[in-house]
């Protein structure tokens, strides 16, 4: 029988609980430790972070060999806020006796392996300073705890027990959840359908299910972003090593909706949108202008690929052309056995079905005999074509709405203007909050639903859907707008008694109000400082 540990009934009331212990909350823990202890109202040993990983991990599913950070090491967890902090990347290098050799490397971007080790080092450091972390627990619900507290329900993943804890403040920093195209969701989970977020733990089990197939394999990777190309290159090398008894090459198709892969814009001028002060600029803009800016700079981060990774892919594809020209000249079709990459352009995955084939050997399970019949719709002509794949890897990005679902299913949501049944929630800024309270928002009508036409681009909203940008400067206010302060605190409606509502902070999910840096590391240290300062000053 599953037991329930009700810490909330005990005397423990945490000053703050953090949901998730990724870079955002790790930076918050570091910022908390920097507060002067004599005056800080938040006690370190009453601070707890709950993390579903069993130890500190940073995107372990994509920790591919040789991959590099997309950001300077100086934009670490603390340097921009507090260069003398013990949790900077330089302090980490120094502690590992690698500072000089890192300098000799002459490169601003560490490998993801090294950065991940840095983050794990900081996690150990903050825990050593008294910050508590409950690893291996998944937060499944929050609810009102009375007297300004929140109850946080989590499941211990190894035992299935539920723990309920009480806190005065909550910092929700859950990162993204895998976004999977709807047509793939209907045939998932399946061992031959994986999302890039779980690539490293799933790819070998996936390939194992295809070991008995004697013909060349055909695998689709969907997406045109950094993850898609990293996965494509890794799969190409795995399939090439796997070989094939027929001597024919395995096939890898990269399915993209556009006409070509695009380089990320990492130029120094575009990069200024990631400056800390740009968060103020974004926050102060009207919401339709914010959306236009987001759309303008989408190409610095989303659906784009680092030029170095693109060059690697281009070279692999060029090499396969050289191989096939040599094979043709020698009239030897079997010469090139490297897995063969094709980029399938202007193609949207419209539907996918499982087809079952008779088993070839007695050891095959039912899923081993599956293939996937997909319909690809040409995004220019709308014409459909059919294709069959043995496996599908979705490198289709992330959604950032898990916090919203938590809040919606709790009694707390209503205090922030959230309607439990709505699937159209907007985040908005404090200025609009004040205008709404003062009844001045009536003049702003009807643009957040994107119905006025003239859209020139689209960005992803907190519900994971595409929001079309507008040229008009109008704004909707309905019951499904949540307001967030510049310091990342959700603003309770004036109807509620403020003392009875716990303070809830949100990190990493507020692109709509705080701009494109929100989901990234660029200002993670500064943002953590803002959250902790607000937490301490509004106590
Ligand atoms: C492969 C990859 C590489 C990236 N590289 C870069 C880069 O080089 N530069 C950059 O700026 N950005 C990069 N990013 C963007 C990335 O979002 C940030 O690097 C960073 O991870 C954001 O930190 P976070 O703490 O907000 O989210 P996350 O790192 O996602 O951390 C959130 C944590 O919360 C935990 N969690 C979530 N929900 C629950 C729950 N209900 N209960 C318990 N625990 C929960 C998760 O397990 C996770 O550990 C990368 C993203 C990916 C996917
Ligand atoms: N080494 C690294 O540092 C590293 C590695 C991986 C990721 N990252 C970071 O992680 C973040 C996410 O990157 P990501 O590549 O995972 O995601 P992403 O940039 O959001 O790209 C997702 C891709 O999936 C496509 N897509 C989404 N839904 C689709 C559908 N239904 N059908 C077809 N295509 C669909 C999108 O197409 P459209 O473009 O047509 O919308 C887009 O090309 C970024 O910040 C990135 O920089 C960093």
TrEMBL record:
Kind of enzyme, top EC level?
oxidoreductase
| The keyword Flavoprotein is annotated on this UniProt entry | yes
Q: What EC designation does it have?
A: 1.14.13.196
Which UniProt keywords are present, listed alphabetically? Answer: FAD, Flavoprotein, NADP, Oxidoreductase
Domain of life of the organism in this record? Answer: Eukaryota
Q: Which reaction does it catalyse?
A: L-ornithine + NADH + O2 = N(5)-hydroxy-L-ornithine + NAD(+) + H2O; L-ornithine + NADPH + O2 = N(5)-hydroxy-L-ornithine + NADP(+) + H2O
Its required cofactor(s), as named, are: FAD
User: Does this entry carry the keyword Cytoplasm?
Assistant: no
Q: Which pathway does the database say it acts in?
A: Siderophore biosynthesis
**A GO biological-process term:** intracellular iron ion homeostasis
Query: Which Pfam families does the annotation name?
Result: Lys_Orn_oxgnase
What is a single molecular function from GO for this protein?
Answer: oxidoreductase activity
Give the record's family classification. Answer: Belongs to the lysine N(6)-hydroxylase/L-ornithine N(5)-oxygenase family.
**Which PANTHER family does the record associate with it?**
L-ORNITHINE N(5)-MONOOXYGENASE (PTHR42802:SF1), MONOOXYGENASE (PTHR42802)
The protein here is known as: L-ornithine N(5)-monooxygenase [NAD(P)H]
Tell me which species this is from.
Suillus fuscotomentosus
Lineage of producing organism: Eukaryota, Fungi, Dikarya, Basidiomycota, Agaricomycotina
